[in-house]
Amino acid sequence: MVFQPSRAVRASCETKERYASEAEARSIALMNAAPGRAAATKPYQCTVCGGWHLTSR
């Protein structure tokens, strides 16, 4: 049996920025952070596309 994410999950993935690696996603998160502050977002690997996205959770 192959895991098939729901249509809503796939659609959500399609609207997000996708990064090729965790390092790239972390770099973008730090670039978006206010000067002197920690990144407000964290990278996670997507189970739908296998790429990396950022989350504020």
Q: Estimate percent helicity.
A: 25-40%
How many domains? 1
Overall body shape: elongated
- Overall mean pLDDT stands at 90
Structural class: alpha+beta
Spatial order of strands in the largest sheet: 1-2
Radius of gyration: 13 Å
> Low-confidence parts lasting 5 or more residues at pLDDT below 50?
none
Strand content: 5-15%
Question: Mind describing the biggest β-sheet?
Answer: 2 strands, antiparallel
- What are the secondary-structure elements, in order, as H or E? HHEE
Number of strands: 2
Helices, by number, come to: 2
Give the termini distance in whole angstroms: 30 Å
Characterise this structure.
With 57 residues, the protein is α+β, with helices and mostly antiparallel strands. The chain has one domain. It is 33% helix and 14% strand. The protein is built from two helices and two strands; from the N terminus they run H-H-E-E. It has helices at residues 7-14, 22-32; strands spanning 42-45, 52-55. It has a two-stranded antiparallel ribbon with strand order 1-2. A hairpin with a 6-residue loop joins strand 1 and strand 2. The longest helix has 11 residues, at 22-32.
Helix and strand topology:
Layout: H1 7-14, H2 22-32, E1 42-45, E2 52-55
Antiparallel strand pairs: 1-2
